[in-house]
Amino acid sequence: MKNKWLWLVALAALATGIVVAGMKMQDQAPEVTPETSTTNSDLQTTTTSEAKERGVTEEKMVEVYVDPALYDTSSAEETPYDYVSVREKADTESEVLTKLHRGEWATYIKTEGDYVKVRADSGKEGYIPKANTNEVQTIQRLEKATDVSQLSVVLDAGHGGIDTGAESLDGNVYEKDLTLNTVKVVGKLLEENGVAVTYTRTDDTLLSLENVNKLSLKTNPDIFISIHYDNYDYPNQAHGFTTYYYYRDGQKLGNLVSQQLAASLPLTNNDVRFGNYYVIRQTYIPTSLLLELGYVNSDHDLSEITKEDYPEKVAQGLLKALEQYVAE
Ligand SMILES: [Zn+2]
User: Fold this and answer.
1) Which positions carry the signal peptide feature in this UniProt record (predicted)?
2) What's the 62 CA to ligand 1 centre distance in angstroms?
């Protein structure tokens, strides 16, 4: 099944310019090269309601750029081209304070010659070459929501179209269908509770990960949640659901989501983990999560996740987590 899956992904890669990251233990979201022809205005956004009025602050941010010709997405190991060193001073010799991965967003402070001073998610401030940054973007930050009805959330159904994602051992169940169904049920419950929900897809289509993030930039949400179901190299050897974050704000929400899903789902909780995934790294929304909601190639998990009420249990857990999140 794995070979078939990889073959399909390879086809998808040819068709859409996707470069596939190494398939490791977890079902990794494939990476996409930055060049595509779709512009922001071509993207269809389906936002169901407007979030209630809140105060706005503006923040200047930059995305870390590394020439795609330099890095190898087929390697699962980190290479020096996967990140840029953040230095104490605007030169190549000063102390390295931290590093920023390609696609990672940092707060823009100022430009100094050929360098840009930034603040990393860790809070560390330093200089990176201007050549390693994309255009400075002004991001509107909404005042903290105090009620779920003030929240604006992007729900991303992983995979779609030619990219089926993980497959069940009998080949009858595709991850792309599970994610879409789950997102629809979750979205419905959130909408009923006043949340403004934007969907990256509402049918069986493949959206490049770059466009998923462009769409998010356009709708400026509080929270981004990418829904996936998992795959493991060996059938029936891995079980449970896992909550991934990249930025620290995501970790906070991730802890609440993990606890609430554990209370509502019949599967093992594999806990909250740092995940270097494209969709949650290459986004300016720090409150981003990638949820793996059970293993499609585990017959145990599959029997649970294909039950009719499973998406509703996911939805109830997520709603409770969001209620706690705004109450904090
Ligand atoms: Zn997936």
Assistant:
1) 1-21
2) 27
